[in-house]
Each structure stands twice: as C-alpha cells, then as structure tokens.
Amino acid sequence: MHLSVLGGSFTVDETLVDAPPETIREQVAEYGRGERESVDLTVSFPDSFTGEVMREMAAIPLGETRTYGEIAATLDSSPVAVGQACGRNPVPVVVPCHRVVGTDWLGGFSGETEGDRVDLKRRLLEHEGAIPGRQATLSSDF
Questions:
Q1: Residue 97 a catalytic site member
Q2: For residue 62, what are the CA distances in angstroms to 28, 31, 36?
C-alpha cells in the first residue's frame, strides 16, 4: 500500500497490520494533520532480528528519538545491524523507524519514498517536535 504524509510517500505492507486499508490510510492522514500523536494499529512483528528492532522502535514515544547504538545495546547487537533492520521496516510511520537516528546524523528512512528519504525523516521528526532547531548532517548511509 502506497501512503503519503508531510509531502513524502512510502510503502507499507498492509498484510502485517491488523486493520483494513481505509483505517491505515485514515490514521496516517490524521497523524500528518496533527490530529493524532501516532498511528495506533496492531502490527504483526516478524520472528526475526528485524522484528525485535521493530518492537524497540514501536516503544519510542512521540517527540523522542533513540540512536542506533542505544537500540543495539538493548538487543546486544551492533548499530550497523540495527540500521539495516530499520531499513527493512515493512511498515514505516506505523512503526516509527524515523525515531531512530545516528549519534550525530539522522540516518536513513525505510520504505520506497519518492524524493529525498532523509528529508522526509527530518520532516517527520520536526512534526513530532523531536528535532526543533537541530543541525544534523543529513546522510542516508548507515
């Protein structure tokens, strides 16, 4: 399913979300308009390292971020492996991979976006108040 928010677009694997497509679209649109703080849908997490990372991402509150290294420490892994798992997130925005950043850069954004993936990540974080005034080096490399 192709979705748009805050001027960017991305793909969500709706088969992992326990809701009809209309509900997914509606919640993402409400989030983008500032009518809801997050998308509140039940997601089936894969039984893999990516699923473990997705659970960690889903637990990050609105307006906060975690670094790849912080999540790696929690999962006894490496920041690179966490970054790769974030990049495989099949349900971006629904599971907020945009809230995972590098120590001194924003990192990448999962999903097939049109345009600049990192720019959409920055807009999502600004929308949530997670990076007001932050001057980060924008890069899409992990």
A1: yes
A2: 14, 11, 10
